[in-house]
Amino acid sequence: MLIQLLLFILSLLLLLIGYCLVFKSNVVLQFLNTKDDLPSILSDYGKFFIIAGILGFICTFMNDRFFSICFIIAVFILSGIFSSFLAKNLKIS
After folding, report:
1. Residue 29 in contact with residue 59, Cβ under 8 Å?
2. In angstroms, what CA-CA distances link 1 with 37, 42, 59?
3. Ordered per-residue pLDDT tens for the chain, 93 residues
4. Closest CA to 18 of 66, 50, 44
5. 25 near 39, Cβ under 8 Å?
6. Continuous segment of H or E residues that includes residue 43
7. CA–CA separation, 61 vs 38, rounded Å?
8. Relative orientation angle of helices 2-23 and 38-62, to the nearest 10 degrees
């Protein structure tokens, strides 16, 4: 029951982050170096986060430990790739 609750909360957070990256990317772009393709890359990452959030809801209701662990590992990998992308593009003043 607790794993389902945590997966549900994780899925909600992924959907919120994906929404912010797709529709509110102007806030994120203020902290990054200006490049031509940066808004499209952020939008792509946002779509990946939205897809991961939807898959998280599916894993929540399937209640299978194997799929839950695979989902968590996939989210860790996606978050690691996204954070390394952000670290390379941050403005250093």
Report:
1. no
2. 42, 34, 13
3. 888 899 999 999 999 999 998 998 888 777 777 777 788 888 899 999 999 999 999 999 998 889 999 999 999 999 999 889 888 877 665
4. 50
5. yes
6. helix 38-62
7. 35
8. 160
Whole-angstrom distance, CA of residue 16 vs CA of residue 32: 20
Cα separation values, 86 from 3, 38, 42, 76, 90, Å: 29, 10, 10, 15, 6
Separation CA 83–CA 67 (nearest Å): 24
> Which pTM value belongs to this model?
0.86
Helix (H, G, I), strand (E, B) or coil at 42: helix
